[in-house]
Amino acid sequence: MNLQSGTYYWPITFPDAPSYPALEEDLSCDVLIIGGGSSGAQCAYYLADANLDVVVIEKSTIGSGSTSTNTALISYSGEKMFTNLINTFGTDYITRHLQLLKEAINEIEAASKKVIIDCEFNRRDTLYSASCAEDVESLKKEYEFLKQHNCDLAFLTKEEIEEKYPFSRDAAIYSYNDAEINPFRFTHALVDYAAQKGIRIYENTKMNGHHYDKELGKMIVSTKNRCSIQARYVIFAASYEGMEIKKEKKASFVSTYTVTTNPVEDLSKWYNRTLIWETARPYLFMRTTRDNRIIIGGLDDNTTYAEDRDSKLIHKKNKLIEEFNKMFPTIKVQPEYYLAAFYGGTSDGIPIIGKYEEYPNSYFLFAFGDNGTVYSQVLSKIIVKEIVEGNSPDLALYLQERPLLNKG
Asked: How many CA atoms lie within 13 A of 291 on its CB side?
C-alpha cells in the first residue's frame, strides 16, 4: 500500500535513532507483534514486563510508516462527538469508552516518563471551536455531557475567544490537560524500553505468509528473507497495511494533508499554545512542536488513489498555509515539510480489535481515527491483558462485531 508521500519532519528530530538487525534464523515465541510503528511499540511496551517471550518484526525500520505522518494531538475527544456516539452505542458504553481514553492519556504520559528516550510529551489545552453558528448547539450539548463525566473543560463564548486569540469563532469547548507528543521518538522510546527488557526486535523483516498449525496450536509466519516464526499469539499491528492482510468492512480511507513550518520566534499570540481544531468536516487542526514549528493539517479529500492524492499536495499545502494566515496573521510561516497520506477511520467512530475465525489466537489492532495514538494505547492494553490474563472485560467494546444500541 502506498501510504504516504512528501517530506517528513518527525524523523529529522531523531537522526540517531536505534537500529535493529534483520531476522536471519527460524525462531519460536509466545507472542509475535507484526509492525514496528506506534501500535506495535505500544503492545511491546505493555508486554515488556509480562514474563513472556515476545518478538517484534518490522518490514522496514521502526516508525517509518504512518507513524512518521502522525501529528500526535493527544486528546480524548474525536471526530465524532460523544453525544453522537451515544445514539449508536448507548450512554454506559460511551461513558466507559471516554474513561478508557482519559486513562490512556495518563498512561502515555507515564510511559514517556518511564522510558530513556525523550518523547517530547507536553500537556496542552485544546480549543475545539464551532466552525459556524449552526454548530454551537451541538457543541454545547457535547460540553454538558463531558462536564457531567468529570472532564476538566470550559465553554467559551465568542467574546472570550476573541479575548484570547487573534481570530473569532461563535463558541468553543476549551479542554484542559490534553497533550502533544513526538510520535517518532515515542515509538522508538517504547521499542527501546521493550528491547532493554529482553523483547527481540527485528527490522527489515517482512512477513510474506502465515498459516495456523492445528497440531502445534501455533501461527506460523514466514518472512521474505526465508525465515519462519512459530507463535502462540500474533498481534497484527501493521496500521493501515493490516487491511491488506485482513479486510475489515467497518474501516475506510480518505486522503489527508499536513504542513510543518519553519521554527517561529514569537508564539505569544497563540494562547497557551493550545491544540486547535474545529467542528467543520473536513476539519482543520493545528499544534506547535518542541522546536517552535507549527503543524497544520486536515483538508481531507475522499480520494483513495495515491496518484490522485499526491497530485493535490501542492494545492493543499498552499491552502493550509492560507488558512493558518487567516487565523494568525501576525505569525509569519513558511512550509518546510509537507506530505500527503492515507488516513483510516471507522464507520461508527470506534476503533477496532479484530478477532477472526480464520486467524486463531490472533488480534488485529485497527486504531483508526483521528485519535490514533490514544486509541492504540487503549487497544494495546486490552489485547495484552487478554493474552496475559486470559480475559479483558473491555475487549467486547472494540471487537469488530461490537454490541450496538437496540441491535437485534
From this structure: 10
Could you tell me if 339 and 257 are in contact, meaning their C-beta atoms sit under 8 angstroms apart?
yes
At which residue does the C-alpha cell 537500529 appear?
A: 19
pLDDT surpasses 90 at 252: no
pLDDT at 163 over 50: yes
pTM exceeds 0.70: yes
Contacts of 346 by beta carbon, 8 Å cutoff, 6+ apart: 250, 251, 252, 352, 366, 368, 369
Q: Give the closest residue to 55 by CA, choosing from 195, 155, 217.
A: 195
Q: What is the pLDDT of residues 283-304, one digit of tens each?
A: 899 999 999 999 999 888 888 8
Which cell numbers hold the place of 212? 495456523
For the chain, the average pLDDT equals 94
Q: Quick check: 228 and 211 in contact, CB under 8 A?
A: no
Q: At what angle do helices 372-389 and 91-114 cross, to 10 degrees?
A: 90
**Rounded CA gap, 258 and 261, in Å?**
10
Q: Residue 142 has which C-alpha cell?
A: 457535547
HSE, side-chain direction, 13 A CA sphere, residue 172 = 26
Q: How far apart are CA 18 and CA 408, in angstroms?
A: 51
How wide is the angle at C-alpha 327 spanned by C-alphas 323 and 332, nearest 5°? 85
What phi and psi values does residue 219 have, to the nearest 5 degrees? Answer: -85, 135
The answer to whether the bond into 282 is cis (omega within 30° of 0) is yes
CB-based contacts of 334, cutoff 8 Å, min separation 6:
261, 262
Task: Say how far apart CA 367 and CA 72 lie, in whole Å.
Answer: 13
DSSP H/E element including 385 = helix 372-389
Give 5-60 pLDDT, tens digit per residue.
Answer: 999 999 999 999 999 999 999 999 999 999 999 999 999 999 999 999 999 999 99
C-alpha cell at 90: 448507548
Q: What is the torsional sign of CA 122, 370, 103, 363?
A: negative
> What number of other Cβ atoms are within 10 A of residue 3's Cβ?
18
Closest to 270 in 3D by CA, of 191, 377, 180: 180
Please choose, from the candidates 179, 320, 178, 335, the residue with its C-alpha nearest in 3D space to the C-alpha of residue 264: 335
**Cα atoms found within 13 Å of the Cα of residue 369, Cβ hemisphere only:** 27
